[in-house]
Design goal:
Length: 352
């Protein structure tokens, strides 16, 4: 028996060591010893580039996740997880090392809710959209002004693309490329307008013209319920071969928004509807579906003129004489607002 004592002891120690390591491994990779999310919080990790474990750890610390860095390195070594893909990863509750690290290893992103606002300028659009993706403002601007790309992929002139950026909330992946984002938006626009096929077929304007007029309605109307009336007014002017004389087109020509001066209306620009006949060459913003529907289903009336009211609605009139009276009221209100603003500024100066 004694000649077998040493080998048996060795085997016994090996078995005990294996059991201990296995038990430790099993214990150390459980959720309660891994990533912990503070109560009631949702943490989002953004990896801009493929990262090694050393590159990932600062991101994890910055996110607010609670974890033991030594255990993390040990677990990553055991699981052979050492390269993590770019993406947006959401942690709602505590997760094991294998769950979260494996997810990032495979690049299994969590989709983000992307909000597209209506009535934006180009620069607002570039800034707000890129803030929700990994791509930059410049990358989005480059894609949206690439005439060859837009013509090849979407069969559109570049100046018509912006009008198809339909406002809504969408689910997309954070790492989506600008070109893929535009493809998705065109798909969503096509799906939405296909539901309006019967109205489009019977309308005197084609789809591009409808979107262009809808973009003007979008910027003219502060209230959704007034859009059909505004759309009806502009279509009355089109039928009478009158110039649209839409203030938002002047602002578009100037490249800025705000109160217009008399000289601004004389701006020589292909989008200035005080200088051109008919519709401008393309949309001046991205209209929402309500504005598009308003153009397709406008109110039937005989109004040809409108001027803003202090409540954000408009006073509609049929004759130019009536219109001038309403303009005088509006200008008087503006003068009164300017006077009150000056008085307030003086009072604030005296108080300070």
């Amino acid at each position: 028996m004694q000649q077998f004592g040493f080998p048996l002891l060795t085997v016994f120690l090996f078995i005990c060591t294996f059991a201990l390591v296995y038990g430790l491994r099993d214990h150390r990779l459980t959720s309660d010893q891994a990533f912990i999310v503070p109560d009631g919080q949702q943490l989002t990790l953004l990896l801009y580039e493929a990262e090694s474990l050393d590159g990932l750890i600062p991101v994890l610390h910055h996110s607010g996740l609670e974890f033991d860095e030594d255990q993390l390195r040990w677990a990553a070594g055991i699981l052979r997880l050492n390269r993590f893909r770019p993406g947006r990863y959401v942690v709602n509750e505590q997760a094991s090392y294998e769950q979260l690290l494996g997810k990032m290893l495979r690049g299994e992103e969590d989709p983000a809710r992307i909000v597209i606002h209506a009535g934006q300028s180009y620069e607002q659009f570039y800034r707000r959209v890129s803030a929700q993706f990994r791509f930059t403002e410049d990358e989005l601007r480059t894609a949206m002004t690439d005439t060859a790309l837009i013509a090849d992929r979407f069969g559109l002139p570049a100046h018509l693309l912006f009008g198809r950026m339909l406002p809504n909330t969408y689910e997309m992946y954070w790492t989506t490329a600008p070109e893929a984002f535009l493809e998705r938006m065109i798909t969503e626009f096509t799906r939405a307008t296909n539901r309006l096929a019967s109205q489009l077929e019977s309308h005197s304007l084609d789809l591009d013209e409808v979107v262009t007029l809808a973009s003007i309605v979008q910027l003219e109307a502060r209230h959704q319920d007034e859009k059909p009336a505004i759309a009806g007014l502009y279509q009355n002017r089109i039928r009478r071969n009158m110039r649209l004389q839409a203030d938002p087109t002047v602002s578009y020509a100037l490249g800025k928004r705000g109160r217009l001066r008399v000289a601004d209306y004389r701006t020589d620009h292909p989008y200035n509807t005080y200088r051109i006949n008919g519709l401008p060459p393309g949309p001046i913003t991205n209209p929402d579906i309500h504005s598009i529907r308003a153009v397709l289903e406008p109110d039937e009336h005989s109004y040809l003129f409108m001027v803003a009211n202090p409540d954000g609605y408009h006073a509609f009139t049929r004759t130019y004489a009536e219109h001038r009276r309403e303009v005088a009221k509006w200008r008087q209100w503006l003068r009164e607002q300017d006077r009150l603003a000056r008085e307030q500024a003086v009072n604030e100066t005296l108080t300070n």
